[in-house]
Amino acid sequence: MKFGLALVGLGLLAACSNDGNPDLMNIRSSTPDEFSILPNKPLEQPEDYSALPTPTPGQTNRADATPTADAVAALGGNPDALTSDRANAGEGTLLAHAGRYGTNGNIRTVLAEEDLEYRRKNNGKLLERLFNVNVYYDSYSQQSLDQQLELDRVRNRGVWTPAAPPDPERFE
């Protein structure tokens, strides 16, 4: 009887323990992310103070950090094209070819709804759902591409594929 009570008490005491990593106990989610802080660009003295643009309170200024635009400029691109909705000169043909059958503005929403409906219809068997077995790859197996068969087809057409993955069945 005493042994049983001691065992239950030990079990209750063990349930109160903290299983968290002691090295991570002092990390709080309310602290600032030091990697998201970007330093401002250095201040520059303008050549002519009368040529300065009018201040725009609450908007960006010339000393604000713009890492994406700076990277595009460093790689030889046009950082002004990042903010415009128009395509660059070289993208016009590509966009015209991609949209030759029409485009759907809410394609992501449509695809998400169709995917959800497909996965509901192919949700797995009763025991797979009961034990929460991932049936994602089984659901889409009919739509998956046999990469080795496609690789052979492309190589037979003379396309050079130097970085193709090896066939796992050939190296067993």
Give structural attributes.
single chain, 172 residues, mainly alpha, 7 helices, DUF3035, DUF3035 domain-containing protein
In words, what does this structure look like?
- This protein has 7 helices and no strands.
- The chain is mainly α.
- It has a domain at 106-158.
- The longest helix has 15 residues, at 107-121.
- It is extended, with a radius of gyration of 30 Å.
- It starts with a helix and ends in a 16-residue tail after the last helix.
- The model has no long low-confidence stretch (mean pLDDT 77).
How is the topology of this model organized?
Blueprint: H1 2-15, H2 67-74, H3 91-98, H4 107-121, H5 126-130, H6 136-139, H7 147-156
Instruction: Report the helical percentage.
Output: 25-40%
* Number of helices in the DSSP assignment: 7
Whole-Å distance between the termini? Answer: 59 Å
Structural class: mainly alpha
Computed over alpha carbons, the radius of gyration is 30 Å
Global mean pLDDT:
77
Number of E-type strands: 0
Strand content: under 5%
Largest sheet: none
Overall geometric form:
extended
* Series of secondary-structure elements, N-terminal to C-terminal: HHHHHHH
The low-confidence parts are none
